[in-house]
Design brief:
Layout lengths: L2 E5 L9 H11 L3 E5 L4 E4 L2 E6 L3 E4 L5 E4 L8 H9 L11 H6 L18 E4 L2 H9 L4 E5 L9 E3 L6 H8 L5 E5 L7 E6 L2 E9 L12 E4 L4 H16 L4 E7 L2 E6 L6 H8 L7 H6 L4
Parallel strand pairs: 1-2, 1-6
Antiparallel strand pairs: 3-4, 4-5, 7-10, 8-9, 8-10, 11-12, 11-14, 12-13, 14-15
Helix pairs in contact: 4-5
Length: 289
Amino acid sequence: MSSLLLIGAERESHTDNLHRFESAFLASGWEVAVVSHDQLMLDRGQLRYLRNRDEIANVNSFDWIWVLGFGARSTFLDRMQLLHTAGDQSRFVNSIDAYLLFQNKATLAMTTLSKYTPITVVSANVGDLVERVRCGGHWIAKPTAGSFGRDVFELQADDPNLIQILEHLTRSDYAILQERVSTAREQRWFVAMGSLLGAYQKEKTELRGNIGARSSAVMCDPTDQERDMVRSIANELVDVGIRACAIDIAYPYLLDVNFVNPGWFQTMENLTGENLADKLPSLFENSSS
């Protein structure tokens, strides 16, 4: 019997992935344990999670480990460093290295995926960002991670609020400037183990393509070029330790990769009446960890 350890917290999530994935894998005959981020402990050389009072889940006893969400920011780095010692990183659906290195929207643009990304500028210095915008062009400014459709701005050199917006975005973190490209056919795909589960098209409100930020979704009929592009991206993501994620594209551009706890399954079920999470167990079984 294959086994899966799901690490997350439903109350902290914008999705129902934790419960949805648990149900899908249990229905396929898997052993599934669901644990909370903050229940990780190192005990006499063993990494364990406390479950349901005194029940213990030993990290190294599972075939697959899937971390959904970040948990408390204050303990994130400690938990990631502990999980990194768990041995073979290939047992993680998305590797701990990916959580540490690639959850930032900009860092994937420094990998082989850069050929798909619009021009990108990242800085915590307002002056640097202002200077780049004032050189001309149309730009999208946003946080480097976790915006959920919030704090997304279109900027040009003559914007009267240019400095104030960039000061707002950089008040405690880095901000990202990205060349504005046409998103008339912006699509969100879900890929797992290099396979494409499907896509919907976003109908946006202003600049916001996040379904939780007043945009909506409709079914789409992807072109062969769009499918080929997503398939290529999915394979390249596997190479950097990301096996299951949502991918936002507006052909020929890659706009975003969300592997932390991506929204997609509920929207697709609303559109199609089908729970596509049911396809995940067979994809995992056909992929060697």
